[in-house]
Predict the 3D structure of the following.
Amino acid sequence: MKRISLISAVLLAALSAGWVGCEAPAPKTAPGSIGGTIAGLDAGTEVVLRSFNNGNLVNVASTTLDSAGGFTLTPAKPLTRGYHQLLAGRVHPLVLITDQTEGVTVEATARAGENYMVDASIAGSPESVTIAEYYGAIMPLQQRIKQAERDTRTLSGDKRAAAKEAVTAKVDSINALSLAFAEKHSGTLAALSALESLDAGAHKDLFKANIEALKDEFRNSFYFGKIKSAYDRAVLPRNMELPNPTKQKKRGGKNSKYGQGDMAPDIVMNDPDGNERKLSDLRGTVVLLDFWASWCGPCRRENPSVVRAYEKYKDQGFEVFSVSLDSDANRWRKAIEQDQLTWPNHVSDLQGWRNGAAREYGINSIPHTMLIDRDGAILATHLRGSSVESALRGVFGK
């Protein structure tokens, strides 16, 4: 611990002193655009700006380098504030935090033998300057880790042991740098990248502080979702996955093909009014996936618990996605009304036990629930009665 603290202090001092990067160029790019020069690449090399959309990276603008390495990118639609990536050729992308109000100027070099942009300087976007400091410091360390890992596979004896020690030392350095950076920039979007490298269980207070600071504006953003999911997993009681873990396997037991840690497959089905609804459209929220039916007595008895949970947490980013194994549309509608299931996401293909989603998930008894995090990963299964609210208290902190 003392060793990590010392490394943190040294790295934080280095960052504060401008250890990475060089003096920023004068801003000269129009608001809403990203431009500048990237040396070391051939004219005609493609330059792409990518943005996160529902957890996926999508290209929002592209161009090619001119003979002097210059480029200008202007997205067709205004950028929303958040993380974006500037990609040139096969070089590791440069991370930017910006929006349509800023004109970002980038001066960087793609050096032979390195797969990331070195000496990157940014102007016109303060948060992009901040995040460039972080990546400018950790990228060389990550490259050395990769080389040391290759050495452990080719060397033997003392040399191999030394290579393993080198990997451990550099990982310690990255963790220490990430902690120092996250503490220094706590409450900013830039801190989220550093938090991603840290163990949420070991730094719960730091994770929670950043979540509280950013949740109102960035609740549905990709990086916020990743950090919140890591925190949720750290604080969620481990006994929430199964009511009797000694009798059921982790992968969901006999009642499902999927369990804690698996990604929840998408469900695309119609609601009672014939409108298509997708489970994936709820990314960025915590979702209770509930398999039930109007004719299922135990399901109907569980519904009041789900209703209470929904009413309590719906304004904090909680949704319910109910999949009915009904075959009679009228009975399905009537049960929704009678049990006061007011959330909008009710779906069914009216195929009873041959329901497509139930077959995909391997469901052979109901009720069956899964708590899904903001990234679409399963946090817990088989939640019944009070365990629903207990799990959500672990996720939302109250």
About this structure: The longest helix spans residues 126-154.
